[in-house]
Every structure is written in C-alpha cells, then in structure tokens.
C-alpha cells in the first residue's frame, strides 16, 4: 500500500508460489504432528532459560548511561522483552527504561518529540512507520556495528524492509507468521472435524463445528488490525503475489475486481452471524486477547472453536489452562487460490536519539544473543537466521520459526503495515474502520471498496 516504500522488492509470482508452498507445506506437516506440551522440551531448552546466554556479540561498557525504549507491547509480551533489556543492562552496565506507548505509535512519538522527551529507541510495527519517522527527521541510521550484525544474521529481504532509500534504519527484532488458524482440540474431536487445507474445506469444517453446538469462529473485531490480516491472507492466496504487491503500493485501486472477489470470499464467513461468537456486534466489542482466551476456556463448550491470528496467539493461550500442542492446536491458513498464503509481520528497533548506548542496543537486538533470550520465554519468533531452533520452548513454536526462515526472502509483509499510518494503522480510521464496517454489513461490498479507495487515495496523496 505504499508507492514510496522502496524496501519491498517485487518478486516473480512463480518464485513466491514455490517458496510459499514449501513454507506452508512444512508448517502443515510439522504443526499437525505436534503433540508436546509447553512445559517439556526434548532439547532441554526449557530449563535453559535460567542459564546465561553465551555472548557472541561484543558490546561496549556503558556504566552510567541511560536509555528509554518505547513500544506498544503489553502483558506477557512486554514482560518478556524487559528480560531481554535486562540482559543488555547486565552486559553493558547501562540502565534501560521501558516506555509503554499507545497506538498509533507514530502519534505517540510525535507528542514525546514535541515535548522534548523522545525515547532513545522505538519498536515500530510497520515499514510505513519507519518511512514516516525518516521523512520527519526523527529516525537515525544504524551504525557500522548494527549494520554488520544485520548482514551476518538476516536474509536480504528482512534487511531491505528496514531500509529507506537504501539506508538501514530498522532492526527487525521480532517477526510474526500471520497465516495461522488456532483451534480448540477438544471441540474438533467432539465434532469430528478435521484440519482443512483449502477454503472450501474450512467452510465445511466450520459447519461441522457449528452442527456440534459450538460457534466456529472467534473474531477480535474491536482491534481493526485483526480484520486486515483476514483480508490479506485471502487476497494473497486468491489474487496472487503480484496483485498483492500492487495493492500494497496502491498501484491498483481498492475498487479493483480482485478486491471485490476477496471481500466476497471473506463474507462467506463474516456474513454468517451464527459463525462468529457474539455475531458481528459481539465481535466488534471483542479485543484480540479476549478473542483468543474465549476460544480456550470453557472446556469443550467455549465461545468459539477457532480463532485466526499469528504465532503470537500463544502468549494469550498461556493465560488460560490450555496447553499448546495438546489442547490448543494450529493449522496453516487454508489456500483460497492455488497456494496457501504466507504473510509476515514484525517489529523493528529504530534509533531516535543517536548515541553510543542506542547504537549498542540496536546492535544487541540484531544479534542472536537477544533473540535467544526472548525465544526461550515463548510467544516470540525471530527472523534472525542464526538463532538456534532449540532455543524455542516447544515443538510448535520451533517448527513455526523453521517455516518462517524456510521462506527466505520470498515472503509478503503485512499489507496494512506497509501503508501510511493514516490508512493502515490508526484505530477508527482507514482500512481498520472500513473493515469493521464491513464486518457489520458484509453485503455492502461495493460501498466498502469505495470507502477503502477514498481513504487510501487520501493517505497516499492521490
């Protein structure tokens, strides 16, 4: 969705389909075979969380230095990241303070900068936000050490998505596989439902779950970003990667027939109020964390049998009694077209106040050391190719990480995250609001397309 984003390289459709098929196929085979729980690990890595992580990156002594790091992360996600920052403090002597930010983070940072109190580093969840930070003169380029770590540890695609005009600004510290559907294993067993591989099979599975007395889907519609992720998976699989890239850069309009086709497909689920927990009204009042927890509480009679979202769903499953791999299982987002989609997302560390300490933190976050600390805690995936798979605490997450890396450079980044923040990343506006309205009225496909195009044109500048 961004004509000015030069970091997403256009790749041949055939190349992506092969890589996506490999990644999705590997994911399908590995996830369905997982039966281990979250407490045990055959590699012994679960218990290694209390051990010191061997240092592979050289960091300077920073006694007396202070840093502020801003991110929108909350709950377990924030708690685990603070342990990574604590490791940095231990190695350098610096003092790091986590600053809770609000969405959209660009607006939050603007207020902090206007008040003369910018954080030293910000974790930005969108390439579009990185571009805006550079355009506003806020972001500072990565130094030689951080750039060296990136070159050693990241595929070219993950390096490029953190660049603006060929210069590195972002370290993609955290990645997401956003092409997953999680399900309550007991519900599926009781219903006699099976894991689908195609969209038509997903509809059949949904009906089977419904017939068993359980609502098929939980949707966190109060958070508009979850709805954009639904659309993107359908669009990528159905329209193909070339169209996906064009729409992502707004080189084709949202009134294009391919968008109509994707919305029509999406309405096959969103248009059946009995398929969504609480109906559209209930979904629009359900935030993402609750959409997960209500799928895995209530025994074999939860509010819903399935919930769509990325690998980070595990963090919220951890708030229930369900165990990943036994009570909570997962399958790849089914193929709508010829190939199952592989959509990625992520969060990048961007320096706002350039200093020796800020550059050292960016270097640390680009190293396998930081990612290994976080990986052991669960609910996290790293695009860092030199993080050993044994660092992940269970088979499910380990296989997700392997599938993410198997895609190499041939992945597609979350479309709305590539957009200007006003269109793809602001609550109550742009794509988030248009798709919330579509969830409320899935029959209004033409009206939804018109609204999406009007908002996109305004955000992209025509």
UniProtKB/TrEMBL annotation:
Q: Where is the composition biased (Basic and acidic residues)?
A: 42-53
Pfam families cross-referenced by the UniProt entry: SBP_bac_1
Q: Which organism is it from?
A: Streptomyces viridiviolaceus
Q: Where is this region: Disordered?
A: 37-59
- Please provide the record's keywords in A-Z order: Signal, Transport
Q: Has the keyword Signal been applied to this entry?
A: yes
Protein name from the UniProt record: ABC transporter substrate-binding protein
Question: Has UniProt tagged this entry with the keyword Signal?
Answer: yes
User: What residue stretch is flagged as signal peptide?
Assistant: 1-35
Q: Which family does it belong to?
A: Belongs to the bacterial solute-binding protein 1 family.
At the top level, the lineage of the source is: Bacteria
């Amino acid at each position: 969705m961004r004509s000015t984003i030069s970091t997403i390289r256009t790749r041949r459709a055939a190349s992506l389909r092969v890589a996506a098929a490999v990644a999705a196929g590997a994911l399908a085979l590995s996830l369905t075979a997982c039966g281990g729980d979250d407490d045990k690990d055959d590699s012994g890595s679960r218990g290694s969380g209390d051990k010191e992580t061997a240092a592979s990156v050289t960091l300077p002594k920073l006694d007396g230095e202070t840093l502020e790091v801003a991110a929108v992360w909350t709950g377990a996600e924030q708690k685990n990241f603070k342990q990574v920052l604590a490791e940095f403090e231990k190695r350098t002597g610096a003092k790091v303070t986590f600053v809770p930010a609000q969405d959209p983070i660009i607006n939050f940072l603007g207020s902090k900068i206007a008040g003369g109190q910018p954080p030293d580093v910000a974790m930005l969840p969108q390439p579009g936000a990185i571009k805006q930070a550079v355009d506003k003169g806020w972001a500072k380029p990565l130094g030689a050490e951080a750039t060296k770590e990136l070159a050693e540890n990241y595929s070219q695609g993950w390096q490029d998505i953190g660049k603006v005009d060929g210069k590195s600004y972002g370290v993609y510290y955290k990645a997401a596989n956003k092409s997953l559907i999680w399900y309550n294993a007991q519900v599926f067993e009781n219903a006699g439902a099976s894991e689908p591989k195609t969209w038509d099979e997903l509809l059949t599975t949904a009906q089977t779950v419904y017939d068993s007395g359980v609502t098929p889907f939980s949707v966190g519609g109060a958070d508009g970003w979850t709805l954009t992720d639904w659309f993107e998976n359908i669009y990528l699989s159905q329209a193909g990667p070339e169209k996906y890239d064009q729409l992502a850069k707004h080189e084709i309009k949202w009134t294009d027939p391919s968008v109509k086709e994707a919305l029509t497909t999406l309405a096959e689920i969103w248009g059946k109020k009995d398929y969504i927990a609480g109906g559209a009204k209930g979904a629009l009042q359900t935030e993402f964390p609750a959409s997960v927890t209500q799928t895995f509480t209530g025994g074999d009679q939860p509010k819903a049998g399935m919930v769509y979202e990325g690998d980070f769903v595990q963090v919220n499953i951890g708030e229930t009694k369900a165990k990943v791999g036994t009570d909570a299982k997962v399958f790849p987002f089914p193929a709508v077209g010829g190939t199952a989609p592989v959509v990625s997302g992520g969060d990048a560390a961007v320096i706002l106040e350039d200093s020796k300490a800020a550059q050292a933190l960016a270097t640390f976050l680009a190293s396998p050391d930081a990612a290994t600390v976080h990986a052991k805690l669960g609910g996290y995936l790293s695009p860092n190719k030199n993080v050993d798979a044994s660092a992940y605490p269970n088979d499910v997450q380990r296989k997700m990480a392997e599938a993410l890396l198997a895609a190499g450079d041939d992945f597609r980044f979350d479309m709305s995250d590539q957009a200007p923040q006003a269109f793809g990343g602001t609550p109550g506006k742009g794509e988030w609001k248009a798709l919330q309205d579509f969830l409320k009225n899935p029959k209004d496909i033409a009206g939804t397309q018109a609204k999406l195009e009007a908002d996109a044109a305004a955000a992209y500048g025509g």
